[in-house]
């Protein structure tokens, strides 16, 4: 059956007029837990139900004729049905955190506009998106680093709170290793395991974002376990040299493999030819976790954004097919249904305050930036000043008053956090009805802006 429909697709794809079909590659970028998978699930759902929701009332979706989510002819399709199964369970649950790469391909067919349009026929846009574990983004800065530089950076991070306390005895063990001595592979495997546990603690206990190497937390399907047996040697630096078989030589070789094949492979797959980027940031959790988590989020996002190419390509660059640059960026504070509607803009403002320097650079490069406080799936309903929602894994409802969000993020990054509860998705979600949301329609409209439809 799958083969049959794949063949059918190939036939229709080759007979369609390629001039009438445009391709849109959207980079959905966000750290782990930012809300990428939930966002992509809601995006497919909103488009599949474009005739019923808010989209139906706005241009160009009033001319949207049909939407097809393609899955038969692509490698590793996005697990839309699995996400739907969790969301529509009783009690409803969120989609699982992502463990591997997957791809979304959506074909949108628009009815032609005007007499000339009718003569030309229907227009198609194919939207292409990748989903991946958010941790993997944190590896991108490694592309520009040697192993020695990474060791130096780790030594610096481990010297400061909260990582210093979280690393406890591991710090001393790594500090004690002479990089030029013969490597003990058994001990190295144990240390790598301890490093992975340390990264887990950084994430879960301190809410830190920059946890490297990311595949220690989320390996994915294409990495052999022993290739992850390396650790930072805290006595080493970028000038270190040591003989074959030494701790340095073994760790450096594995680091280089990790950087040149695993990180580079992900980079090439995710970042080739992005037309636009949707940057999703969960601002509320680090506001809740405190100053260190906010500072770490800022550094992490700045480091990640360094890896993207923004701005206009000149005529010559376009002619020579240089790497295309991202010309449009939507910056979205996610999960804003957790606060009252009047505070949603404040959450977005705090995010823009946090990223102010990097955003100024990107904007200066000629990139159009759109700020949108977003909720892909709205879990709360408003009752006066209070919010009503269900808690994860439980039945029944709670009524609560979320705390205030400051209008601006203070320079010190010290904020009184709003009350954050582990909410479950709303009941009654079904594939064939548009999910409740905040501003998904604005975002989908933004994505298609500038397309000749
Ligand atoms: N209330 C609310 N919670 C949300 C929303 N979107 C995501 N969440 C919560 O945030 C969690 C993480 O969302 P995901 O979509 O899994 O995040 P992700 O970016 O795909 O994370 P990784 O797969 O780990 O990279 C979910 O399990 C929900 O608890 C939303 O619109 N509203
Ligand atoms: Mg995910």
TrEMBL record:
InterPro entries, sorted: P-loop_NTPase, YcjX-like
Pfam families assigned: DUF463
Protein name: YcjX family protein
The organism of origin for this protein: marine sediment metagenome
